[in-house]
Specification:
Blueprint lengths: L1 H13 L1 E2 L1 H8 L3 H10 L4 E8 L6 E7 L4 H26 L13 H16 L3 H18 L8 H23 L5 H21 L3 H11 L8 H14 L5 H19 L5 E2 H14 L5 H14 L4 E2 L10 E5 L3 H14 L2 E5 L5 H7 L4 E5 L7 H12 L4 E5 L13 E4 L5 H11 L10
Amino acid sequence: MNERFKVLGAMLALREFTAVDLAEFSGVNVNTVRVVLGREKWAWEETGRRSSGQRGGQFIQYRVKSAQFPALEKTIDGLLSEAKSIAFRMESTSGAAGTARVEDTVPVLLLAAEDALGRRFPEAATLQDRVHLLSLSEIAASKYGEICPAGSASRAHLAALEILREICLAELAQETGSAIGPVVFSVLREQILSAADSLIDKGAPHQAALLLKRVLAGPLVQPETTLQWKLHVLAEAVTHTSHYVRLVAVRTLGKIVTTIRGSESALPSYEVRVLMEALKAASADEDEQIRNVAEEIRRHAEFLPSTQPADRPLSEQRLLIVDDEETVGGVIVEQLRRYGYAAEYEADPCNVLQRMQKKAFDIVVTDYIMKGMNGIELAKLIHAKFGNLPVVLMSGYVPEVSGSDNFVAFVSKGIIDPELTNVIREHIGEPRGHLRYA
């Protein structure tokens, strides 16, 4: 019954498929898929054949009959009810702690949507395929979004599914040339680990690990900003409460080390430090398996090639970037330096005035929402202490902020958003003169 349940749910999610597609999507053996298709001929029709990629080989292409959608949904709901009944009977007869609860049975379409974005999306060959998978996941999730009880396993899966969708959208944004991708990733970092916690609490550690694996999917030797945020996720995941998530994180670090060692690439020195600190923490894990894996990776990572920041000329104008999210602030600083400005970074807004007393800056760019002090409060303090020094506020969204003499502009947060560079040029000009790269 379980296998049939998964196959029929995948049929409804995919609509058009081959037996191999169904097997990959549902996680059911392809021979079992063919048996289920034979039993459920009423639900589908054959639409043609597709090349298997092998000489002389073809796959039969099927399509769920549109007139049979309601009946197929009813069949799946019946199987779900049966599964709940079995779970309830098992709990009633065993009385054992930790047995399945009726409200914790996760609908197969949620699992299918999770699989679509977690496993199939990174492997999709074309942009059209990826957009199609996003659409399928939306259909599957919307059916249960309003009826999932709070605190249930399905609700935890829905929350994780939404994060998976945001990750996929950020990747699409990067692929189409948008610079917002790394910012979205850094904002999602805490949400990803929080969702993993929720899934583990609901008895779904494998789904929590899938979420972590999905975050790290794709080529590991990537642009510096992308690899940086991934390493930060791993550095936090190696101290996670779940043994399974910690083990996945450590093994992924090992994959990064192996990939770098087997290529001609070198990690920037900052990323090497993050990597080694994460492995150091994992080497002190209470679990012997994780300790042994981490120690072996550390031995290989000690000789990783690294690169120092390029020693290139920068402008005589100094910029201070203030953002309590280190990944975002560091990326903006690096990009402004590449543009030619002598930009520096400060994570704590409470330290800004003291830092500005020791070194003169020509302009300050600060995030709007920060811990300890928001950007408007910081701009007022700077204005009171340093007069007309230009201050630019930036945010991932543009709130309703009344006009003020304390800051010169409010711009959207991007890496690097043309609006920000235009404002900087307007107030301090193009990069001029040069300093050494500090």
